[in-house]
Design brief:
Layout lengths: L4 E5 L6 H17 L5 E6 L1 H10 L5 E5 L16 H6 L4 E4 L2 H6 L4 H13 L3 E6 L3 H5 L3 H13 L4 H4 L3 E4 L13 H19 L1 H6 L2 E4 L7 H5 L6 E4 L6 H8 L4
Parallel strand pairs: 1-2, 1-8, 2-3, 3-4, 4-5, 5-6, 6-7, 7-8
Helix pairs in contact: 1-2, 5-7, 7-9
The chain binds 1,3-dihydroxyacetonephosphate (13P).
């Protein structure tokens, strides 16, 4: 069966010490009040080794926010999937809309990143989602289908089953404008139907599909209450333990 997951995406926030403090606080808070879902934090590369060590004995998982599309070599400034895995991190966000929009990550590049993440034992949290003009034109399904098929549909069913998906409508990210629970459910059900068409009903039923975009303590419960919404990928609200805990408690 698929898992319910709440994942934080710290983006480009927090110095190393601030990240360490946040991880320690999160560990303590969740030890005192156990979550009803899997919880993980995806941090900038420089935090990974320290945060993975802090959270080693806890139930909180750790992931990166990106990895390179090459395995090693002369790629100045890049960080490989193997390097990420060597820190103790188990997850990696791939295909975030900010990477696609600001750093030119194409579906072809993302396909390589997914393969390398899987080859190094990392669980990709693969992000998909349309921009506002695409939704206004009624093209959201088409956009999401292309993102899925061009980056993931070469995978075997076995490899696909290792992937977590995150639907993040770009117009909802950091804008305070959340998708309605109805919009989220409709898209998540569509995504699951696409997976069923490609990999079968069982694989579709076992895939965790997270929602991301202005998810916060006041809307998490309603969003997570939808049958095809298996949790959230959380930006701003992951930067404060009280807010992140409020989102996690959406599963209580
Ligand atoms: P916000 O929660 O800040 O809208 O960001 C969502 C996101 O992009 C998570 O990856």
């Amino acid at each position: 069966m698929r898992k319910n997951i709440v994942a934080g995406n710290w983006k480009m926030n927090k110095t190393l010490q601030e990240g360490i403090d946040l991880a320690k606080e999160l560990k303590d808070v969740l030890a005192a009040d156990k979550p009803n879902c899997e919880v993980l934090v995806c941090t900038p590369f420089i935090h990974l080794a320290s945060v993975a060590t802090i959270l080693e004995e806890s139930t909180v998982g750790v992931g990166a926010e990106n990895c390179a599309d090459k395995s090693s070599g002369a790629y100045t400034g890049e960080v490989s999937a193997a390097m990420v895995a060597s820190t103790g991190a188990k997850y990696v966000i791939l295909g975030h809309s900010e990477r696609r929009a600001y750093y030119g990550e194409t579906t072809g590049i993302l396909k390589e990143k997914v393969k390398l993440a899987l080859a190094n034992g990392l669980t990709p949290i693969f992000c998909i989602g349309e921009v506002l003009t695409e939704r206004e034109a009624g093209k959201q399904n088409e956009v999401v289908y292309t993102q899925l098929s061009e980056s993931l549909f070469d995978l075997s069913v076995e490899d696909f089953s290792k992937i977590v998906l995150a639907y993040e409508p770009v117009w909802a990210i950091g804008t305070g404008k959340t998708a309605t629970p109805g919009q989220a459910q409709e898209m998540h059900a569509y995504i699951r139907s696409v997976i069923a068409g490609k990999y079968g009903k069982e694989a579709a039923g076992n895939t965790s599909i997270l929602y991301g975009g202005s998810c916060n303590p006041s809307n998490a419960k309603e969003l997570f209450g939808n049958p095809d919404v298996d949790g959230g990928l959380i930006g701003g609200a992951a930067l404060k333990v009280t807010d992140f805990k409020g989102v996690i408690d959406g599963f209580k």
